Amino acid sequence: MYTVWQHCVILVLKELEGKSYRGIVELLEDCDRVVKFLGFRRLAHFTTLQKFAQRIKTTVLERVLSGFIRSETRVGNLVLGVDSTGFKLTKASFYYTTVLKRKRGGKTKRRIKKHLKVTVGVELRKQLIVA
Fold it and tell me: What is the pTM of this model?
């Protein structure tokens, strides 16, 4: 009923707009031109998009991404840079979680550092995130 490329375009729109699966379907209900351009007779249910996202192989997404990178950069060899950083998963301060509890007589457990590590690959000449 739907092609792989129609699903891929919707998933890309979903990420671009920062919407949920339900949200992108609701947005497309109002975008008649986009739906007509994609060739939909009727819109896919949001669970159809979820199932597609689960079953699509990462190699297909990598090919789409590499094709986009080639068309945007228009260079033979990429100049890549890699950088990593970490984010705290909680917004609670050290003072609140340890010092304040001690003052109130509460026991403080040993703090477990929970961080989210993010690594990004960037094409340096065009400043385009590639991985």
Answer: 0.50
Length reported for the chain? 131
Q: Is 84 helix (H, G, I), strand (E, B) or coil?
A: strand
CB of 10 closer than 8 Å to CB of 28: yes
- Contact status, residue 65 vs residue 33, Cβ threshold 8 Å: no
Residue located via tokens 């949920």 = 20
User: Is there a contact between 76 and 123 (Cβ–Cβ < 8 Å)?
Assistant: no
Q: Pull the structure tokens for residue 11.
A: 């998933």
Asked whether the beta carbons of 119 and 83 are under 8 A apart, the reply is yes
Q: Give residue-wise pLDDT tens across range 4-46.
A: 778 888 887 887 788 898 998 898 888 888 888 888 888 888 8
Phi, psi of 81 (to 5 degrees): -130, 145
Given the structure tokens 């891929």, which residue do they identify?
A: 8
Q: Which two tokens stand for residue 26?
A: 């609701």
Residue from 117, 118, 120 nearest 131 by CA: 120
